[in-house]
Amino acid sequence: MSVTVTATTSTGFVRTMNEDSYTTGERIWAVADGMGGRAAGSKASEIAIACIQEAEKSSSIDQELIVTLVGRIQQRIHDYAAHHPQAAGLGTTLAGLALVTLAGKAHWLVFSIGDSRVYRLTNGIFERETHDHCEAQLLFDTGRFPKKNYETTLYAMS
Hints:
Elements: E1 20-24, E2 28-34, H1 41-56, H2 63-83, E3 92-102, E4 105-113, E5 119-122, E6 125-128, H3 135-141, H4 147-157
Antiparallel strand pairs: 1-2, 2-3, 3-4, 5-6
Helix pairs in contact: 1-2
């Protein structure tokens, strides 16, 4: 199997500092978007990607490893905040793709936390593969999204 990967990040339209981190490994690809405006968002994204790069070294990557990995990331971010009070409230989103072994066969496993997204490109069409975990998505899903803000928010989320 051949995989072509490219990666880039941007500060976007509001921030002056890029708080994103990413990894383009052999079996796990991910982006962590440090939560802009929060204390140490760049450190949180750095911790998340460092954990993923450690997991990449595992002899076998499966669904259980990815679930454990997400818990490990959360714990390390929590531990960092406990030892660095000035970073209290740090956070990151995380989205990625892992080539895992399931029942002896290779499968793609998509994972995400927060509002970073994974898309699949098929025949020139991007399809969203993840569901946002944020208040805006909850309001949208429950039909409580204010109509006048809808178009602006969809543009900002795109």
